[in-house]
Predict the 3D structure of the following.
Amino acid sequence: MLHQSGEMTEIQRVDFDTWLHQSGTHKRAYDSVVKLWGELDWSETLNREALNAGGLPTQRARGRRPVLPIAGGLIAAAAALAAVLLNQSPASHQMPAPQPVLAETLFETAIGEIRTFELEDGSEVTLAGHSTLAVVQMEQERIVELRKGDGFFDVSKDPQKPFTVRSSQLSVTVLGTRFEINTKPDHEDVSVTEGSVRVAAANGGGTVQLSVGERAVVRRGQVETSTFDLTQSAKWRSGRLSFVNVPLKDLIAETNQYYPGGIYLGEKDVSGLIVSASFRTDQVETAISGIARSLGLSVMETDTGALVLIHAPDGK
């Protein structure tokens, strides 16, 4: 470092000492650089070459720290910090202002597991079976990502920090409310049980405002709205699944979040059959057997415990 090289001018030394004693933060930053160079056994020649090699990086990937080779990364970091500390004018001897820190936390449930998580801001999220939620805390905004499965959100009110839930096909923004998001193979939907939300298709296909008792379905970038029965909202939270006039493939996709062995369609031509059913998550085998019979199908169980729906022999 220039301070330890013996090449610092008297003016530079006075400026440096003034900066160093301005605050404990400056002292700790300098001590860290000294310690880092000592651990690396970095020569003064290399020190000068690195400091003269170029400017500081101007941009980093949003939300993720770059992963660098250990030696090269530490050397680059030390050089960058030294350049900031030693190349400031006497009138601007201040550490750079801290940038917003993004910290991602994952919440997950196993197949058949339903859990409620309390977030740092006081909001609560209940995840259905086999679901994943990523939470990102930011200074000016609260953002979470429902990456898989279903979630029921009870958002704490904070007018200064909007709460946004993102998934693969949509985003929901609120200040404080209660709503459910369900992700399906070919669409996603949002149902509001308290307050109001703004729903936007992920690709800019449309935006709608929903209030209590309203639902939005996002499919291939298009948003459709309807009303729903509030008593049927997120019944999975109490360990019960309810379906009203849904395609068989959607019923199976959601039921698979609670059945470890897995449920599969043996023939593609039955995936669109319309089904209405209600059953407990601990009665999946019995329910699937009954649903199959009502549709003229049979259930074959494999050695691994999977259930496969096929056409019944001779139509029986």
